[in-house]
Design brief:
The structure is a single chain. The protein contains 3 helices and 8 strands; from the N terminus they run ααβαβββββββ. By secondary structure, the protein is an alpha+beta fold. It has a single domain, classed as Porin (Beta Barrel), CATH 2.40.160.20.
Length: 184
């Protein structure tokens, strides 16, 4: 299971990094960098636990009837490995499963990166991104697909609350997903 997560995460990260590359040699170099990053986090990182907290559907994008149908309590759990580099940037590999907006289980594996842009003592405000592979019953008939989303967080010591925004149009997407993670 863990080797499957490592492989899937490496593929997700490699796919994201290899988009629109000019040469095969450059693609190979980026693929090697992604693989080395995954290996470094796996070998040197420590255990993280993830807890989904909230799925907020932007009220302007949906009718009240649709909002009433949605699940905004994404019960679930996840595990990962992460580390902070010498610049206090956070690098993480994670696997999580939670209830999506339709109360269906959504698995996700990926890589996350944040950079602190403000600090006060043990408090950090961070910004970054996540590259992942997920599967949803209402998207591509549960066929796994990759994605990249922005990530913001507020950390205190080893505890962080992160949010990401899933863009969309009227009646789709436009969701703010919030989760917590603790680094052991």
């Amino acid at each position: 299971m863990l080797s499957h997560i490592r492989l899937t995460t490496a593929l997700a990260l490699g796919s994201v990094l290899s988009c629109s590359l000019p040469t095969q040699a450059h693609a190979d170099s980026l693929w090697d960098s992604a693989r080395n990053e995954v290996q470094h986090i796996w070998d040197n990182g420590t255990l993280d636990a993830y807890l989904p907290l909230n799925t907020y559907h932007m009220r302007w994008a949906y009718t009240q009837e649709k909002i009433a149908e949605f699940n905004e309590n994404p019960w679930g759990f996840g595990l990962g490995r992460s580390l902070r580099d010498d610049k206090d940037n956070w690098h993480a590999l994670y696997a999580m499963a939670f209830l999506d907006s339709h109360k269906k289980v959504e698995p996700i594996v990926g890589y996350a990166y944040t950079h602190p842009f403000a600090r006060a003592g043990e408090w950090r405000a961070e910004i970054g991104y996540t590259a992942f592979i997920t599967s949803r019953t209402d998207t591509l008939h549960s066929f796994p697909f990759p994605g990249v989303l922005p990530l913001v967080g507020i950390s205190y010591g080893k505890f962080t609350i992160n949010s990401t925004y899933i863009p969309g149009g009227k009646g789709n997407g436009n969701v703010l997903f919030t989760f917590a993670h603790y680094n052991f």
